[in-house]
Each structure stands twice: as structure tokens, then as C-alpha cells.
Amino acid sequence: MFLFSTEVTSSQIISDTPLFQRTLKAYTLVAEKIYGDVLEIGCGEGYGLEFIYKNANSVTVIDKSKSVLDKIKRKHPKITVLNQKIPPLRNLKDNSFDIVISFQVIEHIKDANLFIKEIHRVLKPNGKAYITTPNSKKTIARNPWHHKEFNYNEIDSLLKNTFSNYSIMGIEGNLKTSKYYERNKEAVEKILRYDIFNFQTKIPSFLLKIPYEILNRINRNYLLRKNKALVKEIDLNDYKLNDYSDKTLDFYCVLEK
Predict the structure, then answer these.
(1) Where are the alpha helices (DSSP H) in the chain?
(2) Which residues lie across from 165 on neighbouring strands?
(3) Measured in Å, how far apart are the chain's first and last C-alpha atoms?
């Protein structure tokens, strides 16, 4: 079993269920759109590949974790795996892919503009890219693993620098997921009461990562203990794709070259 940061939502940890199902929803939305040569950037443990490889002619995945890629290669030997940090997308030719997928990645990228330009470069003419990223307006506390989170105007401005044809929608939850969100918000705010000098917004991100990891995992386990039925019951059907609104949890962007 692999050990995952709280930033890499795991299918193997019950307390991650609400976030895992939310992330998985994006793969179910894109599954029917898959064809031809496909690239996934930031594949994580690879749980989304089950929705991708069946309808693709070829699949290439990129991730910075070699151990994760080794596991994926053993399970799917026909998939091409590339171990690299991005951007740029090294060793990938222009106009190579019909579909590019990158879910919950761009918020980690320092040069997001280059990242979008590289996606445009490797897409074939008329190819499409599918990107998700958290809505910053729904963020409860600073995440030191994220270089930048976007609001609607920011993600819109970023995309239109490179793509002329794109749409931005939103993945949102329901009453059940809202209940979990509010319970999580209450728990996090209790923790933040001890940060009387607001260090979480002031210190360098690398100093915040270890305490963030410890407290985030403690908090998720606490929410599981206090709301076991709720956490376990949240599934794909509790999330849906809709027009952007104040209920949007993640932006769901479709970019066409």
C-alpha cells in the first residue's frame, strides 16, 4: 500500500472519501469524450485510468512520482509513463494528442501560463483538453502545496491568453456534501483559533507543509469518527456538473485547439 500526502487524495483511505469522490467525478464526466491518443498530466495513483484507457488508441501519463508510475506500468503495461516535473512537457512533440487531461494539477504549477501553452502545443488541431482546479472562494485555509488557487476571473484570464475556444463550468455538491463541507470548515476554524498571529498566511510554504499534513490528517480522521455514516455515504452521485455559481467546488474547463 502506498502512503499518500493528504494533498494526493487516496482511494485507499476512508477519511478521504468525500474528496476522492469529488475528484473521481471529473473522470466520469470525461470518460465518454475519450478517443485517439490521450495524455494525462499528473495522474496520481492512476485511479482515473480505468475511465480513460478503454476508449483510447494510446495513453501517455506524466507524474513526478516514480513509485506511482512503476505501479501504473505494472498494471497497464501498454501505457507510456513519463517521470518528470512540469512544465515544460519534455520529449513530447507538437500536435501529438487528441485529448489532454489534467485534474487538480494547475494549482501546483508556478508558471501556469507556460503550462497552458504547453498543453496547447501538444494538442492536435481540434484536440481538447480537460482541466479541473479548486475554486479559491471555497478554500477554508491556506494549502501550502498549492502555488496558486484561482477564482473564476483568474482562471478565465489565464485560459484566454492561449485558447480562443474554451468553456468553464463547475463541479458542485448537494446537501450531503455541503453538510460535510460545513463540518470540515467548523473543525478547521477551531484549529486556526490557535494561530493568533495568522502564521498560516505569512510563513513560507515549505515550513507549513509538515504541520499542514499532520493537522489535515488528524482533522479528516476526526471528521470520520464524528460523521462516519456521512463520510462513507458520499459518492459520485452527490456531485454534478453545472454552470459556474457560488456553489462551484472545482472549475471544470474544456479547451479546444
Answers:
(1) 17-31, 66-75, 112-122, 152-160, 175-192, 205-226, 228-233
(2) 256
(3) 39
Tell me the pLDDT tens digit for each residue of 16-59: 899 999 999 999 999 999 999 999 999 988 889 999 998 999 99
Cβ atoms of 80 and 58 closer than 8 Å: yes
109 touches 115 (CB < 8 A): yes
pLDDT at 3: 43
212: in domain: no
- The enclosing domain of 63 has a CATH number of 3.40.50.150
Q: What share of the chain in percent tops pLDDT 70?
A: 96
Count of domains observed in the chain: 1
Beta 97-103 vs 37-41: how paired, if at all? Answer: parallel
Q: What is the DSSP string of 118-140?
A: HHHHHEEEEEEEEEEEEBGGG--
With left for phi above 0 and alpha for psi between -120 and 50, is residue 49 left, alpha or beta? alpha
User: Could you tell me the residue range of the domain that residue 31 belongs to?
Assistant: 14-172+239-256
DSSP character for 197? T
Helix, strand, coil content of the chain in percent (nearest 5): 45, 20, 35
How, if at all, do strands 165-172 and 250-256 pair?
antiparallel
Let me know if residue 233 belongs to a domain: no
Provide the pLDDT confidence category of residue 168 given band limits of 50, 70 and 90: very high
- pTM of the full predicted structure? 0.93
Give CA angle at 135 (13, 68), nearest 5°: 35
187 domain residue, yes or no: no
**37 phi and psi angles, rounded to 5 deg:** -95, 125
